[in-house]
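job 3f2a | input accepted
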Amino acid sequence: MLSLSHDIANDPENQALANQLGDAQNRFEALDGWSLEEKAKKILGGLGFTDRQFTETMNVFSGGWRMRVALAAILLQEPDIIFLDEPTNHLDLEATIWLEAFLSDWKGGMVMISHDRAFLDSSVNHILEIDLKKITLYHGNYSKYKDEKFLRMEQHRAAYLNQQKQIKDTERFIERFRYKNTKAAQVQSRVKMLDKMEKIEPPSEYNHAMNMRFPQPSRLPQNVASCSNVTKNYGDVEVFKDMSLTVERGQKIGLVGHNGAGKSTLLKMLAGVEDVTGGAVRIGVNVDRAYYAQHQLEILDPGETVFESIRKANQEWSETEIRTYLGSFLFTGDEIEKHVKVLSGGEKARVSLAQMLVNPAHLLLLDEPTNHLDIVSRNVVEKSLDQFTGSIVCISHDRHFLNNVTNLTCEVGGGDIRMFEGNYEYYEWKKSKRPSEEINERKPKLPSKNKLDYQERKRTHNRLAWIKKRFNTIEKEMEKERSTIQDPIHVDEYEILQKAMENLTDFENEYIELMEEQDALQAKDVL
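job 3f2a | predicted structure (527 res):
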């Protein structure tokens, strides 16, 4: 419009230019162009850009930040439909949560690929599954998809087993009476029935990961690592000031905080790849540490095979042990003979994590370990880290991963840290409370034992006894519901299966709530 205005100023009698300017102004207003800059700043800010960065040229940004700019440009256009391929891969947790909220209000259509389960739960209302060259549409978000997928798998499995039994019984009848003239018609009828029968395909497994125990580190000292009054500066920028942190045996800590708060810096200082400006970082006696960086995949030797990568990391294992171990990371058959250079990003990530965990250190320092992994692979990594008996400090924008792996949350920001005694879900709940309700998480004040009078202790004991009995009842009820789900007789009775699934979920939720209450009462009773 500015160019057309200049042209008209030079040629005010040109009606064609005036018409073009009028059309351009109408289109600009239809697109709400007057608020375009404000919208752009809102979207860029949500994706993690600061006001100072708004005027920077693209050449100063890394590839990940350029991907954020490209995503912002698409969102700003507000097209009728958007196609997003792993939109959260280059986002930190704060930006992921913002994008999730933005897309939940999206008025247009959207087709998206994502391996972030929490993100899918909040952003989509249909799941399109591609499996074994078949496409299946599920209604609802990812959690509903998982429930319905499980139901369909159970129904498919039951139908397959029923048909296999029917086939075997029919073949047994044919073989038994094949040469009896009195049964010839019946035998022929069953032969035709088998020929015309539409065979049900064997069920595929939803999660191909093997069930195995992962290697564990030797016993750790109580204090695994610590930061004492650490100060860290980058030039004039102060990241930490007098920050102190202790990592103890068995703690699995998730680092959270806004972009640039210092999460990666803290991880690097613990790993020994970044020096402190002041204070000290100490690692416990005989404690081994392993650092998984975001560029970890570049460290792999492209000329090695998958098998050789693990053999190099653990030369004591037999070939069978290595093959079994790689199977737990979804490498089977000829796949373990693939060279690293031909692997996808997700496959390389699995090899790198398998290398790290084959001889696990006492302290794992993980920076976005689930990047490049699909959902099944993430489940494998979560399982291995859940079994891990050492200590973990990790950064991840995958909330499902943080909830399943960590037992402490460390909020980084303002030059210091703040600890929360729980996973990310607990941290979110704690942060949502009013300031007047907040409790000092570092030094929880617990009532002394002498404040619990006899009557209160008696009530506590009675309640604990009732909870124990209720556990037994719930376990029996859960077993009944599982039997209903797995019973082939109900294969076509969707309402019965759906009700059993709902009952099972209710019992599981009640069981978890009672476990939490039991822990709280037991802690109270021993004080």
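job 3f2a | The mean pLDDT is 85.
job 3f2a | closed
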